[in-house]
Design goal:
The protein is α+β, with helices and mostly antiparallel strands. Helices cover about 25% and strands about 30% of the residues. The protein is built from eight helices and 18 strands. It starts with 8 loop residues before the first strand and ends with a strand.
């Protein structure tokens, strides 16, 4: 469902934005996803008309009918990307085009209209520009997290692709994901639950995938672990990803991430690290990794580290791994580990401290 039209976004800024003092109090300890900026961008899509009525408006509640189709048939997709304060005071977002392309892929999978890449980026840019004071000052890991999303708004209970949609971008200041420092995370490898199946929606960023992960996540906590790791749905042996992060395996000077199979989300951080690793002199590749290989290579010492990656946490070392009848501990997680070197290198690019060799940073001025 392609819709190439690019709408004009009308500016209707808030007449009562949060005061500077209130905003600074929030930025002193924003957490993650708990506070939101003064504005949001909304754009409508209607069958036969395309994208229209783009607006930047004050952040606030949405009003829609109880029979809106998103509430019944879950036509909903979203993205997550960040804006960073640069050393000169300007602001830049990280790889927004990659998120825009993935948003289009998710839309195709859920039979939703595709937001043009330029519209996606313009909406994000406008929101950041108007709420620029919400971007934390340069110096740490703090950033402004952007959440573009789209929902089906047609009213009706017939099971079909909706004929009306709403695209929205909101923003939330984000502090360091690990306020006390990066610590290894414990993993429960689920043998009974799967995240996605071949031909399903595993490679789409849709809320249903995350809802499906909540029970397995609760089971992981019940086993004393912080995150759940999923295996493939067919053989139940190939490592895929965590509930919200991709995985990487470190073999000395080589890092390996599970091959995309259609049931793994193609993370932007995951893709970026393949290049960052090569920039630092490591070999990087995609390959299938079985749960038996994971345990065997850890015990032999061949597998030196494992880490998870994603937009929110960047890189998280894996510590304890548990599954039915087995438990082992990964090495790594130290300040001189491969994971931490990659993390620092990526953050340095995002914060403008290192050369942007790949043209990833989108400057807003």
């Amino acid at each position: 469902m392609t819709t190439p039209s690019t709408p004009t976004i009308e500016l209707k800024p808030s007449s009562h934005p949060l005061s500077g003092a209130e905003r600074e109090a929030i930025l002193a300890n924003p957490g993650f996803g708990r506070h939101f900026t003064d504005h949001m961008v909304t754009i409508k899509w209607t069958e036969g008309r395309g994208w229209h009525d783009g607006q930047l408006v004050p952040y606030g509640p949405l009003s829609f009918d109880p029979a809106s189709m998103v509430l019944h048939y879950a036509q909903e997709i979203f993205e997550g990307l960040k804006a960073y304060r640069q050393p000169d005071g300007s602001v830049a977002t990280f790889r927004p085009e990659a998120n825009a392309r993935r948003f289009q892929a998710s839309a195709r999978r859920l039979a939703m209209p595709e937001v043009p890449v330029e519209t996606f980026i313009e909406a994000c840019d406008l929101l950041v520009q108007h709420d620029k004071d919400w971007v934390p000052e340069h110096g740490g890991e703090e950033s402004l997290y952007l959440r573009p999303f789209m929902i089906a708004t047609e009213v009706g209970l017939g099971v079909k692709p909706a004929s009306e949609y709403l695209f929205i971008v909101i923003a939330s200041p984000a502090g360091a994901y690990f306020p006390g420092g990066v610590k290894p995370v414990s993993i429960w490898v689920s043998q009974d639950r799967v995240r996605a199946v071949p031909g399903g929606m595993g490679d789409a960023k849709t809320g249903g995938n995350y809802a499906a992960s909540l029970l397995a996540q609760a089971e992981a906590i019940g086993h004393g672990c912080e995150q759940v790791c999923y295996l493939d749905a067919v053989e139940h042996k190939w490592v895929e990803e965590l509930g919200g992060m991709n995985l990487y395996f470190v073999y000395g000077d080589k890092i390996v991430t599970p091959t995309l199979t259609g049931s793994i989300l193609e993370g932007v951080t995951r893709d970026s690290l393949l290049s960052v690793a090569r920039d630092l002199g490591y070999e990087s590749e995609e390959a299938r990794v079985s749960i038996d290989q994971w345990r065997r290579d850890t015990e032999s010492g061949a597998l030196t580290e494992v880490f998870a990656c994603g937009t929110a946490a960047v890189i998280t070392p894996v510590g304890t791994v548990k599954t039915n009848g087995a438990e082992w501990t990964q090495g790594g997680g130290t300040s001189d580990s491969v994971a931490m070197k990659l993390r620092d290198a990526l953050l340095d690019v995002q914060r403008g401290k290192a050369e942007d060799k790949h043209g990833w940073m989108h400057e807003l001025g």
